[in-house]
């Protein structure tokens, strides 16, 4: 400090300090809001990921069933063709 200050100067410094504190509190509150928003987004993304994983599992299971059915249909067609050939060859 440079010598004695007037009451007006002290109030000016106090006003600047309070303004700086208010700005810091506002920034802190904004950071907390952004962090909270980010946490909510992460939770939504995790829920979406879980839902998509379930859908993928169901789709993979369906694909396996369809492949099994396709193999069975193919086997039956081969059997039918062999039967038809045997009948025609007689």
Briefly summarize what is shown.
It comes from Oceaniradius stylonematis. The chain has one helix spanning 7-89.
SSE sequence, one letter per element? H
The helix tally amounts to: 1
Poorly predicted residue ranges: none
Class by alpha and beta content: mainly alpha
Overall helicity: over 70%
Strand content: under 5%
What is the mean pLDDT? 94
Tell me about the largest β-sheet. Answer: none
3D shape: rod-shaped
**Rg estimate, integer Å:** 38 Å
Our measurement of the CA-to-CA distance between the termini, rounded to an integer number of angstroms, reads 120 Å
Total beta strands: 0
Topology summary:
Layout: H1 7-89
Pfam family, one: DUF4164
Keywords: Coiled coil
Coiled coil: 14-76
Could you walk me through the main structural features you see in this protein, from its secondary elements to its overall organization?
By secondary structure, the protein is mainly alpha-helical. Helix content is 92%, strand content 0%. The protein contains 1 helix and no strands. It has one helix spanning 7-89. The longest helix has 83 residues, at 7-89. It is rod-shaped and about 125 Å long. It starts with 6 loop residues before the first helix and ends with a helix. The mean pLDDT is 94.
Quickly list its features:
single chain; 90 residues; mainly alpha; 1 helix; rod-shaped; DUF4164; DUF4164 family protein
């Amino acid at each position: 400090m440079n010598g004695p200050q007037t009451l007006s100067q002290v109030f000016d410094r106090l006003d600047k300090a309070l303004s700086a504190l208010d700005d810091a509190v506002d920034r802190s509150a904004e950071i907390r809001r952004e962090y909270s928003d980010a946490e909510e987004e992460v939770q939504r993304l995790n829920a979406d990921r879980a839902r998509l994983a379930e859908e993928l599992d169901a789709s993979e299971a369906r694909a396996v069933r369809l492949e099994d059915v396709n193999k069975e249909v193919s086997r039956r067609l081969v059997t039918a063709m062999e039967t038809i050939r045997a009948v025609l060859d007689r």
